[in-house]
């Protein structure tokens, strides 16, 4: 999955960017669980599903 597609999915689902790091970005879910998103062009589909589960949103 492309990084930008995952970010769009997170933002449409109500997640907020808490902070940007050099290698990862930290996102807060709608109910305030947090997850880190790597800043790579391609993100493994398994990792994308795991990030969505950690944030408590629907999988892409």
Structure write-up:
The chain has helices spanning 3-12, 45-55; strands at residues 16-20, 24-28, 34-38. It is of the alpha+beta class and 60 residues long. It has a single domain, classed as Hypothetical protein (Metal Transport, Frataxin, Chain A). Strands 1-2-3 form a 3-stranded antiparallel sheet, covered by helices on one side. It is globular, with a radius of gyration of 10 Å.
How do the strands and helices of this protein lay out in sequence?
Blueprint: H1 3-12, E1 16-20, E2 24-28, E3 34-38, H2 45-55
Antiparallel strand pairs: 1-2, 2-3
Short description:
With 60 residues, this protein is α+β, with helices and mostly antiparallel strands.
Q: Notable features of this structure?
A:
alpha+beta; Metal Transport, Frataxin, Chain A; 2 helices
Radius of gyration, in Å, reads: 10 Å
In sequence order, what are the helices and strands, one letter per element? Answer: HEEEH
CATH topology, by name, is Metal Transport, Frataxin, Chain A
According to CATH, the homologous superfamily is: Hypothetical protein
């Amino acid at each position: 999955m492309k990084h930008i597609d995952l970010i769009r999915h997170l933002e449409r689902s109500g997640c907020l960017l808490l902070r940007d790091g050099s290698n990862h970005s930290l996102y807060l879910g709608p109910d305030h669980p947090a997850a880190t998103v790597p800043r790579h062009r391609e993100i493994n589909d398994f990792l994308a599903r795991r990030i969505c589960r950690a944030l408590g949103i629907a999988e892409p």
